[in-house]
Request: fold
Amino acid sequence: MKMNQIQPSDELPRYSEPKKVIDLSSVLLLAIGVISGLFAFHLTQTTDLNALVIVPSVVAATTGALNLTTIKGAR
Reply:
């Protein structure tokens, strides 16, 4: 074997690809936001509550939806 040849792939260093995984806490936050949003909507339709009651549930659902996946790097 000559000195300037590339070694076979068996001898090259191996690394693992980063993986996208679902973040469980974000899924729970999204579910809580949707459920509380439905409850708040129901309350605004049946009582005289202000529609601003829905705002915290929209924030929770949006935060949960934007962070559903995380990227896990190699260890």
Observations:
- Helices lie at 24-46, 55-66.
